[in-house]
Design goal:
heterodimer; A: about 260 residues; alpha+beta; six-stranded mixed β-sheet; four-stranded antiparallel β-sheet; 5 helices; about 30% helix; about 40% strand; B: about 300 residues; mainly alpha; two-stranded antiparallel ribbon; about 70% helix; globular
Chain lengths: ~260, ~300
């Protein structure tokens, strides 16, 4: 009796995980170009849940998380402490290979989407984000000093670079959903990953990932390239520009 | 109208930045100072990364001091030989300043050193100017001629070797204090993103006894060249000069300075100096307050390495 129940459960979970739902998704664009009037933008994500005949009908509704991960970066978080009466940067921790940008949009409050283990596996939500901290002799993947982890997330959130938005993935039909990812003006450039995960009954059913490129374009790209690859020319050019403007000013407003 | 700054990597309102440039330009025209000590903190306060603010203001000072230098050149009130000595030492100071800037930035102590320097130099100079102009005002109100201290002979300065003759300034003094002054201002100006005129001018008058007629023009030449060197070096080593931000500030600054100069010509010198003293002191006090008060956010982030892929 017990063995039979176990077998049933096993078949059920296999069916749920491997065969049942598949996820098809697309973004409104896969290249975001930053031009001189760029002040942020939105990326629309559409997703469709496809079910085959073998799919078991379940009572619980689907839950979806749409996430955008920015290019990885290594960041030092510094803490000011009082030394000899003044506040100076005294202690620090380094977070290695963390996303420079992160947004998650979900159908429900994050804690209600799946089990804590599943949320952690897909890094859904700021609390479950993997932020490895460098420690003496290696890297602490499990988070390291919690105060620095918290401060890092807080500063990133204040800068608009880390965000979690609940209840912002909406179902248009029982199987078609839509989400709008907000991209702020100070977004870092580079390759991004859009990840969509479908959950039900606390577990993940399907996952879909795609790439997104955020890059400067035209004039902005030219200036940025010049500043880094031909920095001497760039510096001289800036000085010449300054001299010309100063000269024009002294000619236009000549008073003697 | 939003403008995306390619080096600062953020979007700013072009009119806000233009307004800041014009307002600081107005004050600098009014009071006869560069205004870097106001513009840099103002930009940092409005969200521009400190490194970008310091380097970009450097380029803005090139534009405003070029304008000023040309005006003084036409009036022939520049001691070119003295300026040459200051410029050579100043450029070397600028080279050292950029290295110090880079080192302190990596160590995470750049903001602290900038704040301390602002407190010490702005506080000190502001206080001196305020005391001096208060004395002058009181004397003027009492209808007494202003007591001018007889320039005492600085024994130690005149005892130094390597004496050089400066015809335009009618001076025969050692080159050493001139070079030291140029080096110091070049270093400090580059590190702090200021021209340093408010230190240079009193030093030339009181320490080296340069005639007031050529002081401002000569100091402008020194500022122009050291800031030009600093701009190129900041661009080459720290990649932190934002040319678009600089352009908006330059145009705003040059226009504002003209109106400031017009208003300034109608005000009394002692009033202007008192005003400048208060302004300098206020900025210094603001930095002092930030150093001693518990910060609302003790943490800060510093990107060590920026990747390209997730």
């Amino acid at each position: 009796m017990r063995a039979a129940a176990l077998a049933m459960a096993l078949i059920g979970s296999l069916g749920g995980q491997a065969l049942a739902e598949t996820l098809v998704a697309t973004t409104s664009t896969n290249v975001v170009e930053i031009s001189s009037n760029f002040s942020g933008t939105d990326i629309a994500v559409f997703g469709m849940i496809e079910r085959d005949r073998a799919t078991v009908s379940r009572a619980e509704p689907y839950k979806v998380a749409v996430q955008l991960f920015g290019p990885k970066e290594t960041v030092m978080t510094r803490r000011k402490e009082r030394r000899a009466g003044i506040w100076v940067n005294a202690t620090s921790r380094v977070h290695a290979d963390v996303p420079s940008f992160y947004v998650v949009l979900t159908t429900d409050p994050i804690a209600d989407i799946a089990t804590p283990e599943t949320l952690k596996r897909f890094q859904v939500g700021l609390a479950n984000l993997l932020l490895p901290q460098k420690i003496v002799g290696g890297i602490d993947v499990e988070g390291g000093n919690p105060e620095f982890r918290e401060a890092f997330i807080r500063l990133k959130s204040q800068a608009g670079l880390y965000r979690e938005v609940a209840n912002k993935v909406e179902f248009l039909t029982p199987s078609l959903f839509r989400a709008t990812i907000p991209i702020p003006a100070n977004v870092p450039i580079g390759r991004y990953r859009v990840q969509i995960v479908l959950f039900q009954e606390g577990l993940s059913l399907a996952e879909h990932s795609s790439d997104l490129v955020i890059s400067k374009t035209g004039f902005e790209q030219l200036i940025y390239d010049l500043a880094f690859s031909a920095s001497l020319v760039y510096g001289l050019g800036t000085v010449i520009l300054a001299l010309v403007i100063g000269w024009i000013g002294s000619v236009v407003f000549r008073r003697d | 109208m939003q403008l995306y700054l390619p080096i600062a990597e953020l979007s700013v309102n072009i009119f806000t930045i233009f307004g800041m440039g014009a307002a600081v330009g107005f004050l600098s025209g009014l009071l006869g100072v560069g205004g870097g000590f106001l513009l840099t903190p103002l930009l940092v306060f409005s969200g521009i990364p400190p490194a970008v603010a310091v380097s970009t203001v450097t380029s803005q000072i090139v534009a405003s001091s070029a304008s000023g230098t040309l005006a003084y050149w036409r009036r022939k009130s520049i001691d070119w030989k003295l300026a040459g000595f200051l410029v050579v030492a100043g450029s070397l100071g600028s080279v050292l300043g950029v290295q110090a800037f880079r080192y302190l930035r990596v160590k995470g102590q750049l903001d602290l050193v900038i704040s301390l320097c602002y407190v010490v130099f702005l506080g000190g100079i502001g206080l001196l100017m305020l005391i001096e102009s208060a004395r002058a005002l009181r004397a003027a109100n009492a209808n007494k001629p202003v007591e001018i201290k007889k320039p005492r002979h600085h024994g130690w300065i005149h005892g130094l070797p390597f004496k050089v003759r400066f015809h335009r300034s009618r001076l025969y003094i050692s080159a050493l204090p001139i070079l030291a002054l140029g080096l110091f201002i070049g270093f400090l100006g580059t590190l702090l993103g200021i021209g340093g005129g408010f230190i240079m001018v009193p030093a030339l008058i009181y320490l080296l006894k340069v005639p007031t007629g050529v002081v401002i023009g000569t100091s402008l030449v020194q500022i122009l060249v050291t800031m030009a060197v600093a701009t190129v070096l900041q661009a080459a080593t720290n990649h932190s000069v934002d040319v678009l931000l600089g352009l908006v500030l330059m145009v705003g600054g040059v226009i504002g300075a003209q109106f400031g100069a017009q208003v300034g010509s109608r005000l009394r010198g002692e009033h202007l100096r008192a005003l400048l003293g208060i302004l300098i002191l206020a900025v210094g006090a603001r930095f002092a307050l930030d150093l001693v008060m518990a910060p609302s956010e003790p943490y800060s982030l510093w990107t060590i390495e920026q990747g390209n892929a997730p």
